[in-house]
Amino acid sequence: MDREERYRLVARNTAEVVTEEELDSLLDRDPTIYIGYAPTGEMHIGHFTTIRKLADFLQAGLEVKVLIADLHAHLDDEKSPFDLLDARSAYYREAIAGMVGAAGAEPGEIEFIQGREIELSAEYSLDLLRMAADTTIARTRRAGSEVVRQSENPTLGGLLYPLLQSLDVAALEADIAYGGIDQRGIYMLSREVLPEHGYNAPVCLFAPLLSGLTGGKMSASEAGSGIDLTDDSEAVEEKIAGAYCPQGEVTNNGVLEYLQYLIFPILEERGEPFAISRPEEYGGDVTYEDYAALEADFRTEELHPQDLKAAAATYIDEAIAPIRNRFADRPDLLAEAYPEKYD
RNA sequence: CCGCGCUUAGCUCAGCCUGGCAGAGCAGCCGACUGUAGAUCGGCUUGUCCCCCGUUCAAAUCGGGGAGUGCGGACCA
Q: Do A267 and A156 lie in a common domain?
């Protein structure tokens, strides 16, 4: 694979690359890219779109590491009780492996690392304290404002969070930090502070955050705002049917975004088109080879939201089915990770 | 250790002084209108009033005890 194609694969469907020049020069070799997930709430389709890109990274020859940031999950306002960190970590691993597989890649090619494996060494602790000494509270609050739960009386844990995440980059020896664009503040801090402590500033790659199905940003706390990986076919249909989706409007349109960032890349991997069945009255069946063509038809109102939704629901349901099935075989993983819900 | 504040619907809170059917806004749900959704209009739902004991015909409200949470003071070898 030539270098240009590798760059295209790595950078496609991202919200921002910091910086493009730095990323390009990294492709002299096979760099290491990492993404961290704090095992808190159940995983959803938003996670799936960021994880799907891991398939792009693998295909481009990058070394891919996934950090299960268990301590982060507890440091951030105790989103996960300490006693549930192991169970939720196990659940996250299984879900992530399932998503990588569903994206058409080999989960075995991904290296999983547990936060506590790297975050409790004497060296890491010393670096953390030294960073704490020269980082202001205002700076770390700003860095974590989009990620760490905000409250009137924040705990120290939430303030340390961005510093730990920065040191994770160093401890994992990652060249590239990958994550949702909400992570931007933290990694900008990393780029600032890591070099002051003898480490390289990471190149950053940010995935877009998808719009919620009810309009506005997707919110994990709002049911119906996003598709859960454990949603059954009926729930997927209902949520897509109820989605905010103005005719001809492509901005803030969760349905289109799911297709662009998740469904079309998966179909492309398989070499299949996106097929919409439609009453003759409205133009009859139609298929799209790429997302741009579909978006163009939607924009010109050639393609009506109702026809789009029906097809989108089918494809999305099919995409999450493998993950759903994985957990149907392992109900214990969910039950132990979220005992209050699955009792 | 001492003092003060707070705890009421999914969320933000009012009500407490002066006891009398538990409320508002937002959210949510259901209809109407749209070949989807939203917007708009119409309608509807939602409660361990933190817990226990007491006073009272009657307690979210008053008294006592407790819990959780937050703030302040003191202590600072």
A: no
